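Here is one chain, start to finish.
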Amino acid sequence: MVGKDNTIRPCVATIGTFDGVHRGHQFVVQQVVQQARERGLDAVVLTFPNHPLQVLRENFHPQMLTLSDEKERLLQQTGVDRVVLMDFTKEVANMTACDFMQTILKEQLNAQVLLMGYDNHFGQDHKSFDDCQRDGQKLGIEVLGCEELASEQKISSTAIRQALLHGDVETANTLLGYHYSLQGEVVQGFQNGRKLGYPTANLQVNSSKLMPENGAYLVKCRMSNVKCQMSNVFGMLNVGTRPTLHNGQQRSIEVHIFDFDGDLYGQTLTLELLHHLRKEQEFDTLEALQQQLVADEAQCRLFLNSSI
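Its structure:
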């Protein structure tokens, strides 16, 4: 935030990629907010809209848990005063930790305190926590270490990715602290679901977003158009190549929304993954596939009834 004299208010800051904004990240940010409130300073999170490895590694194609707008929204919900999105460039990658602290943290953010995670390193020289503390003393930035969240499970973006790639959305959601979601615009599909009695909305999702394992999932659906706002609406999501229909290797993301009949083309849908039903499989006939869809729906409704 900017003061009345147009100067940047002093702050407590932390830095990170924060992909997923999972429970471990949330715990770090909570400490930033607490330190800021105790000192009468702003709480600031500095993060990157792009993945640093896109700059550091040639031909790296990220599979993100949270895209830039998702990450910013989730971080803002933690109670911080500012979320600063800074493009990670070659110039930033070549900065030493001390240069970064001087140029970015001190001069641009007016940071008086820097909180570093227990496994956090930054700068081209990957300086240790002790080195950053010494540099901070010279620059007038107090460098503090964050406590690590006590948990029976290892909480990391990598662990969450692995869970999703194995269809284990329950574990992923537990580590995240919220439901993993996919968002996309509804586009024209093959119309095969309608023929089977299960019309689907086909989503076009950003290619940088991590897809869970191919298979069927129970999801909660949210719609962007306020005129058609739906609450507590659920459906069956299928992620995969539709092997029974022999549509090739192109992956599709399609959802059948329960008890809904309407035109969704052009709408933006957000699907929260609640439960993994089964892996994708090929059926001998369309009748066998239709019977499985009926069984999938019954399993979804049983799960929902038992969860209420």
